[in-house]
What does this fold into?
Amino acid sequence: MSLEYPQDFRYQDTHEYVRLDGEIGTVGITQFAVDQMGDVVFLELPDIGDLLTKGENFGTIESVKAVEDLNAPVTGTVIERNEAVIDSPEEIAEDPYGEGWLLKVRVNDADEVLDSLTADEYRALVEGE
It folds into this structure.
């Protein structure tokens, strides 16, 4: 099965992504990470109004295999949490780049994503190219 990496997203080597739309960043985890984790059973996310700092932990995702830290791909303020995936974390696996997003963040500096991985760079990282 070929995994998807949308071209308009930027990726972290810790498997989080961000999609910018103006000053709003949608944050989630990649399909690769979801596939590696197996069934996601619990999600801990920050509250609306909390500040994320790029590269720092902002929550955890728990699967039947492991508990993993989530690291912020951008610096900014949380403006929305995806309550649907908090209530039913298994939904992340079904559509990690669409309905399975985790947070929406008002980004402090959109240029900050420029040092993140492109889709091709992320694919090379995870597929060992």
